[in-house]
Design goal:
510 residues, alpha/beta, Alkaline Phosphatase, subunit A, Arylsulfatase, C-terminal domain, 2 domains, eleven-stranded mixed sheet, 19 strands, binds 2-acetamido-2-deoxy-6-O-sulfo-beta-D-galactopyranose, binds calcium ion
Length: 510
């Protein structure tokens, strides 16, 4: 590694950085697959017995599977903010679940995961779900160049769903423009009041092919009412059942195009988020209803990407990382039969809670690292977080970061690669209520919870009492030990307060 840094130093003196051709063999390609709302118990390799996930299971067999890996947060926007910035999202206002017309929340000029890899000579791309905002506040026009966005924070290429599939606009963004937009049919988006003359789910439920269970009753696109109102952009609108195929093809095109140099691909699938509309070839394939079917579809996407790597002879030196942005949810706002058809499947496996929750089900997610050239297959219970990717991959690619870059990120590279058990000792979990981990102890802070709740049946973990669990004995967080271990509670509370106070400054424009 020292030699590598020395070469980089010489190369930079000679003005040769990024030093692409010289060192390509030393740096693995990195494909980060992030599923949306996939739970700790949703995959065969994590104990699911009813939903077939052969491709992910194979990835796990050939790689290192983590049993105590975490997203920073139990919802999408904050969780992805942390992946890309290496900062706990709750340090910054405005990192909650974003509407589809929100401005970009990642500060320009700060160190990001893709930007850091770009500096290391990687070609960087993002395909799939974004949900981190686009453009500048109040100035977003879907019919012109849309920036700043991914291309301004370190990605060379993007093909995106701007927010979520249940939020308008239901169109793809390719680099700076909406793909397939007919300028004669401009797009307007509004999150306050209806626009255009298209029907809404609220006024015309008879037009719906999938009814909402809560919220989701604004503009109807493809027979499904969404959050937010949009008009225009008809030629550019996506077809829900094709989302998985479309993203997978774009991801593979990126791999194919950049195969001769190190590349970083952030492949953020829509599955198994709502609205769940599997392609017909996956309908009924899980035996566990539509949520199971879109997990089978997700597994297919993974298999197809792995097959592409094989076809291009890239398997050995590509690090494939598979994870999820937050815990699982079954009814997340549409009457899609997911609850009734579960068939005994447990999306969070042995964990309590799920998406939105302060229990382990909120942030403990699947994580698999496969890199045949270096990572030995196995299973590890080391504690790690997505927030650690920034500093760990900087270490992998021999880069030194400024002290304030990725401020909450820890270099746990050797743990990610299975070469040590030096992961984290502590971790803050942002569910509804906040949690603090110290080893296998878990504290959940007393909290009232917001007035408007997500109205899903996932246990969020709010309580007026402090909660303390010993996950070594009680993974399901059923026995509150606060009364018998008040010192432990106090210790973890202090640790949480210390973390909060740490402040960890955000880099501003350089
Ligand atoms: C909630 C939505 C939910 C989902 C979530 C974001 C309602 C009632 N619920 O507000 O359906 O879209 O936001 O999910 O509208 S996430 O995975 O992107 O965080
Ligand atoms: Ca999510």
């Amino acid at each position: 590694m020292k030699m590598f840094r020395y070469f980089i130093f010489i190369a930079s003196v000679l003005g040769l950085t990024p030093a692409v051709p010289l060192f390509a063999a030393d740096r693995p390609n990195i494909i980060l697959i992030v599923a949306d709302d996939l739970g700790f118990g949703d995959l065969g390799c994590y104990g699911a017995t009813r939903i077939p996930t052969p491709n992910v299971d194979r990835l796990a067999r050939e790689g290192l599977r983590f049993t105590d890996a975490h997203a920073t947060s139990a919802t999408c926007t904050p969780s992805r903010y942390a992946i890309l910035t290496g900062q706990y999202p709750w340090r910054k206002k405005g990192t909650g679940i974003l509407p589809g017309d929100a401005a970009l929340i990642i500060e320009l000029g700060r160190t990001t995961l893709p930007g850091m890899l770009q500096k290391a000579g990687y070609k960087t791309g993002v395909v799939g779900k974004w949900h981190l905002g686009l453009g500048t506040k109040g100035e977003l026009d879907w019919n012109t160049e849309i920036k700043p966005g991914p291309l301004e924070i370190g990605f060379d290429y993007c093909f995106l769903m701007p927010a979520t599939a249940d939020r308008v606009p239901c169109v793809f963004l390719e680099n700076h423009r909406v793909a397939n937009l007919d300028p004669k049919d401009p797009i307007t988006v509004n999150y306050d009041h209806p626009i255009g003359d298209e029907p809404t789910g609220k006024e015309h439920p008879e037009l719906l092919k999938m009814k909402p269970s809560h919220g989701h009753d604004n503009t109807i696109i493809n027979g499904i009412s969404r959050i937010g109102y949009m008009s225009g952009g008809h030629a550019a609108r996506w077809v829900d059942q094709d989302l998985a195929d479309t993203f997978t093809k774009k991801a593979e095109a990126f791999i194919e195009k950049n195969q001769s140099q190190p590349f970083f691909l952030y492949f953020a699938t829509h599955d198994p988020h709502v609205p769940r509309v599997p392609h017909p070839r996956f309908v009924g394939k899980s035996g566990c209803g539509v949520r199971g079917d879109v997990i089978v579809e997700f597994d297919w996407c993974v298999g197809d990407v792995l097959a592409t790597l094989e076809r291009l002879h890239l398997t050995t030196n590509t690090m494939v990382i598979l994870t999820s942005d937050n815990g699982p949810v079954v009814d997340d706002g549409y009457q899609d039969g997911a609850v009734q058809d579960l068939n005994g499947h447990r999306p969070a496996g042995p964990l309590r809670g799920g998406k939105y929750s302060g229990f382990e089900g909120g942030t403990r997610v699947p994580l698999i690292f496969r890199w045949p050239q270096r990572v030995k297959p196995g299973v590890t219970d080391v504690l790690v977080s997505h927030v650690d990717f920034v500093r760990s991959f900087a270490s992998l690619t021999g880069q030194k970061l400024d002290a304030n870059a990725g401020p909450d990120s820890r270099d746990v590279l050797t743990a990610f690669l299975g070469e040590s058990k030096k992961g984290r000792t502590q971790l803050v979990e942002q569910g509804g209520p906040f949690g603090m981990r110290d080893g296998l102890w878990k504290y959940i802070e007393p909290a009232k919870g917001p007035k408007i709740r997500p109205r899903t049946p996932t246990k969020e973990g709010y309580s007026s009492e402090p909660q303390l669990y010993d996950l070594g004995q009680d993974l399901g967080e059923t026995k509150n030990l606060d009364a018998t271990h008040p010192d432990k509670t106090r210790q973890l509370l202090e640790e949480l307060q210390t973390e909060r106070k740490a402040g960890n400054a955000v880099e501003r424009k350089k």
